[in-house]
Each structure stands twice: as structure tokens, then as C-alpha cells.
UniProtKB/TrEMBL annotation:
Signal peptide residues on this chain, from the entry's feature table: 1-20
Organism expressing this protein natively: Caulobacter radicis
Electron transport as UniProt keyword: no
Entry keyword annotation includes Lyase: no
Annotated keywords: Signal
Full protein name: Peptidase S14
Amino acid sequence: MTMWLSVLIAFLGMTGPASLDRETAIIEACRTWSRSSDNQSQPVRQIASDGLCFSGPINDETSAAFVSALSKFEPSAPVVVVVNSGGGEINAGMAMGEALIPLQTTVVAQTVCASSCANYLFTAGDRRVIDDDALLLFHGGAHRLDEAQLRKAIAAQVAAEQVEAQVAGVRAGVQKQIDRQDAFLRRAGVDVNFFRWMAGFNDLSEDGRLALCPTPDPVMILYSDRLLATHGVTVDASRGPRSQAALDAAVRALGRSDAVCFMR
């Protein structure tokens, strides 16, 4: 930001992203908090007047606590939100992301931000940061199901005359999630086909998948900053793994053995 832009913003009473010094201080405070026992009883902690930490699974309860905590911040004031989560329920994650969008946020992925955390919290930030050795992991969002497989699974559990009604109910529920997800992505400035693009990976041949992703049958994928940017998910500061070897080492350092892939 130039000196003249800073002066103009101050003159107009506008605010920009939190200063890098404040960002660093809040990141470190959240790191300390997430390593303490406090975060076991409360998944959300307002660490400063301009900082919020979230650590834990994403479900209805933690989502409500997060949204409530965000409501205490002024929309015009910059806030740093540090998130550490393996993910969870789609609708709960979308509610959290929807609450982030109206604010001026720097969202920081710390340690692990996977699944719904990556999908809906990280993407909602105005400024997006991947902390030291943090894993930003995706495995897709809401998408249409293979109805032949769905029908077969339902038929094994209910009477034949109930199958089509059950399939229709699931179809309607999934479409509602997709519509909400599309609206969220538009508001976040992200490619509305981001998750459709992800789902296309599974339609490739085995050789096609291995050409893009050296890990067979990955549970999660870490996309390069370049790939994310092509879909509108700009990473403003990236201090996470940038190769398959670095990703594997980071996963081992967490005591995990998940099959994860680094996709360039």
C-alpha cells in the first residue's frame, strides 16, 4: 500500500487488512491457545479486539459459537481469524463462511485446515494466509450424486415402494446444498465451478489421475497456490508445503499417515 493510499484511507475513515505486525501477533497468540487445554472446552476464542481463534471440528454447535463470536466485530474493522480444523458438516461450514464474508478478514490456516474448513472458511477471507507448515487440504464440496449407486444403497435398506421417494428426498437436499454453495462462492469472489472442477478429478482414468497426483487414491489434496488462484482463491502469503515431499513430511510430523497429494 502506498503512502498516498494510506493517507486517503485514513482521510475517508476506511480500513484495510490488519497490519502484518498485528497479524503475526494474533497468529502466535492463537498458536499458543490451540496448544493449551482451554480450546478443549471452547472451540472459539476472541484473542484480541481484532483477532479470533477457531480450533476443532465443524458441527452445528461449533458453527453457532463461531458465528456468534464474529457478530461482535464491526464490519468496517479489519479482523484476523485463525482457523485450525479437520473439517466437518457442510451446512455448518457454509454458515461460518457466510458470516465471514461481510467482514474485512484475514483468514489464516494454521496446522490443518481441511474439508469444510478449506472449502468455506479459508475461501471466505479477503486476505488468505497459510501459516508455517500448515496443511490446506481439499476433497471436494457439495456435488450431484451418482443416482444409480444411491438408488442401490437405499434399496438395500428400505422397502421397494419407498426407494424413489427416498432418492427424490436426497436429490432435493443435495441440490439445496449445491445452490447455497454456489451463492457462497459468488459472494466470496471464487469460481462458482471450483468444486465441480474438483469433482472432475474422479472422472479421469487412473493414468490421468496419477499424471496430476502422484499419490494413488488420495484422501485429501493440497493444491498449489497457482492452481487455487486460477479458481479465484488467491493465497496472499503461503508458508505451507510446496512439494509432495514437503507435504508427506508435514503429515508425518503430525503423526498421521493419510494418503495426501500435492497437485501443481
